[in-house]
Amino acid sequence: LSVFDTQSVVERVADRTLELGVVGAAPRHRGVEYEPFLRDTIVLICPAGHPFAGRTVTLDDLRRENLILMQDGAGVRQMVEEALRRAGTRLRDLDVRIELGLQESVAHAVRAGYGVTFISRTSVEADLAAGALVEARVEGLDLEREILLVRATGRTETRAARAFVEFARETLP
C-alpha cells in the first residue's frame, strides 16, 4: 500500500508501477480508466472551541481565517478550488498559511490549532466522534464527491486486486 496525492497515483497506475489506485478526483489521462467506488463528503474542520465549530460560515468568514491546505495535486484540493471558483472566489483570496501532503498531516495541524482545513469526512470520522475536531459548513459550497478506483487501460485485473476491491466494498459503508 502506498499513499500519494491523486495526480501521483494516476501517473503510477498509468506507468504500471501500481496495479490499482483509489483517488478522489479524475484528472484526464489516456492511460487510465476510472470506476466509481464510494461517495465522500469534504468538510471544513476546526479544533474544538473554534468560533466556526458546528456553524455555517460565509466565504467572507473563511477569508479571515488561517487556512491549511492539501498539497497541489491532491483530489481534495482540486475539488475545493473548483467549488470556490463556482462560488466566485479564488484560492489566492484566502489566507493559506500551510500546505501539507497527507490528510493526516493536515488534520494534525488543525488539531494543533494552526487553522482550519477542508478534508475528507471519512478520514476524520474518529476525531469528529471524539470531539477532537469539529465540522463546520461553508455557505454556498457543495463538496460531495465520488471516490474512484483507477486502473491502467487494458490491464488485466489480478486476483489480489479483485480480492482487495471485494473486501473494501464489503467493509466500507
Which tags fit this structure?
alpha/beta; eight-stranded mixed β-sheet; globular; 173 residues; 6 helices
Structural class comes to alpha/beta
Largest sheet: number of strands, sense, barrel closure: 8 strands, mixed
Percent of residues in helices comes to: 25-40%
Number of strand segments: 8
**What integer is the average pLDDT?**
92
- The oligomerization state is single chain
Termini, distance in Å? 21 Å
Principal-axis shape: globular
The helix tally amounts to 6
Low-confidence stretches: none
Strand content: 25-35%
Order of helices and strands: HEEEHEHEHEHEEH
Q: What integer value in Å does the Rg equal? A: 17 Å
In brief:
The protein has 173 residues and is of the alpha/beta class. The chain is built from six helices and eight strands; from the N terminus they run H-E-E-E-H-E-H-E-H-E-H-E-E-H.
Written account of the structure:
By secondary structure, the protein is an alpha/beta fold. The chain has helices at 6-14, 59-63, 75-86, 103-111, 125-130, 159-171, and strands at 20-23, 32-47, 56-57, 66-70, 95-100, 116-120, 133-138, 144-152. Strands 1, 2, 3, 4, 5, 6, 7 and 8 form an eight-stranded mixed sheet that branches. Helix 3 (75-86) links the parallel strand 4 (66-70) and strand 5 (95-100). The longest helix has 13 residues, at 159-171. The chain is globular.
Write the layout of secondary structure elements.
Layout: H1 6-14, E1 20-23, E2 32-47, E3 56-57, H2 59-63, E4 66-70, H3 75-86, E5 95-100, H4 103-111, E6 116-120, H5 125-130, E7 133-138, E8 144-152, H6 159-171
Parallel strand pairs: 3-7, 4-5, 4-6
Antiparallel strand pairs: 1-8, 2-6, 2-7, 2-8
